[in-house]
User: Fold these one by one.
Assistant:
Number 1:
Amino acid sequence: MKETQETVNKWQLETFGQEGSLQQVIQRLREELDELEAAEGQGDFHEFAMEVADVQIVLWELAAKASVFLPAAVDAKMKTNRARTWKKSEDGQWRHV
């Protein structure tokens, strides 16, 4: 992957500036997730992939605004996840116990 959290955040700052609160970015992330869900229902793989990318881009923006370096946070979280016990719930989702 050519783009990183740093390159995307640099573009975002140059293009949009520092505007927007954490809550505004979270709302935009919700909107992108809604678009992702709609794309999945259409069966258009390319559109679905573009919406997945939009979610990642907005997630990187959110992380940067909160001073979170996402690769390090994911590494730390996966260490926690690997140490957890997981159980499949009645709705078919896996959850830690």
Number 2:
Amino acid sequence: MRFRFSPVPNPHDPERPYLTPLIEVQLLGDNGAMLDPTFALVDSGAHDTMVNADFALELGIDLGSTKPIRILGIAKQPVNAKRGECCLLWLK
């Protein structure tokens, strides 16, 4: 798959934006909830897709009934996360 790289503002050098693989997506929950379209960063090396806990709540994902798991976050720092499922639609 190929993704178009979009310019994103660079706070350190406004004249040279970052080029980032962003795609427009829409998240759907099992309860029929649908969030407004938003942008997602493509990480071709990721094994899972991460979403903000606020998105999970809006989608009706019950995070209270799942046990926390430890994952490596930015700079390989361990952080707590929870598993849930939703449908991600890629809007071309």
